[in-house]
């Protein structure tokens, strides 16, 4: 059974506290959208959830396999798209799920096109297809709708709904409209307190940036 839980989690990055006291729990079929202004720490929270960044305080518990889609597409630019995606599908031992994932994101027809020749939105759809094909229980999506046209956003929403129906979890950070079934909000704004700003200023001054 998949689950993702944050208990009183804090995150320091770049010498400052980004957020603290973040708690939420997601079980099978549940989803949450992380909101907050630029720099609040949304991407950092997803990296903490993925286990790529250590929490400064609190506990992160994840049960199930995790897949993260962020701005790093991580596909070989010189390979045809399907071969580049197959590399990851093999690592995940999920070669059989790749055609359906490419179909779901509307990129099946791009299979022979080298990754370097794809448009921004097509590359984004490929990154999302990689997550869909991974078979991971917990999808971590950083700004998943950036660069996507309306049809692709709809495709992604459908893929997320199917994932949730199958018992999967979705945690997405976004500034834009993105419909996730029965999702809750994890808002980082309240954690950008004046205390944090003061600590940031102090940190800048300590590092010789006081005049900025
Ligand atoms: N690799 C890094 N090393 C050090 N500090 C970093 C790094 N990446 C981000 N930060 C710091 O973490 C802060 C939060 O960044 P993060 O990308 O998590 O915010 P965000 O809420 O996702 O922002 P945005 O809405 O602009 O995408 C940044 O302001 C920066 O100070």
Describe the structure.
With 212 residues, the protein is of the alpha/beta class. The protein has a domain at 26-50 and 65-184: Rossmann fold (3-Layer(aba) Sandwich), CATH 3.40.50.300. Helix content is 33%, strand content 25%. It has helices spanning 42-50, 81-91, 98-104, 120-134, 150-165, 194-206; strands at 3-13, 16-26, 31-35, 57-63, 66-69, 138-142, 169-173, 183-187. The strands form 2 sheets. A 5-stranded parallel beta sheet has the order 5-6-7-3-8, sandwiched between helices. α5 links the parallel β6 (138-142) and β7. α2 runs parallel beside α4 and α3 (98-104) crosses α4 (120-134). It is globular and about 45 Å long. 39% of the residues are buried. Bound molecules: adenosine-5'-triphosphate. The site of adenosine-5'-triphosphate has 11 residues, from α1. InterPro entries: AAA+_ATPase, ABC_transporter-like_ATP-bd, ABC_transptr_haem_export_CcmA, P-loop_NTPase. One of its GO terms (molecular function) is ATP hydrolysis activity. Keywords: ATP-binding, Cytochrome c-type biogenesis, Membrane, Nucleotide-binding, Translocase, Transport. It holds the Pfam family ABC_tran. It comes from Sphingomonas changbaiensis NBRC 104936.
């Amino acid at each position: 059974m998949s689950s993702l839980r944050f208990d009183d989690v804090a995150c320091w990055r770049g010498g400052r506290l980004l957020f603290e006291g973040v708690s939420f729990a997601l079980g099978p079929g549940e989803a949450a959208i992380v909101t907050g202004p630029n720099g609040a720490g949304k991407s950092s929270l997803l990296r903490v959830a993925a286990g790529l960044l250590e929490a400064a305080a609190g506990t992160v518990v994840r049960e199930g396999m995790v897949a993260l889609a962020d701005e790093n597409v991580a596909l070989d630019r010189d390979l045809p798209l399907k071969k580049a995606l197959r590399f990851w599908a093999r690592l995940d031992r999920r070669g059989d799920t790749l055609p359906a994932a490419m179909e779901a994101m509307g990129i099946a027809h791009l299979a022979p096109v080298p990754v370097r020749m794809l448009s921004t939105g097509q590359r984004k759809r490929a990154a999302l297809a990689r997550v869909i094909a991974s078979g991971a229980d917990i999808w971590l999506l950083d700004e998943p709708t950036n660069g996507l046209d309306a049809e692709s956003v709809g495709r992604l929403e459908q893929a997320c709904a199917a994932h949730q129906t199958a018992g999967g979890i979705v945690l997405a950070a976004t500034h834009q409209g993105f419909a996730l079934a029965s999702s809750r909000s994890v808002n980082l704004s309240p954690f950008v307190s004046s205390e944090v700003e003061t600590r940031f200023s102090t940190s800048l001054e300590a590092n010789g940036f006081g005049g900025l």
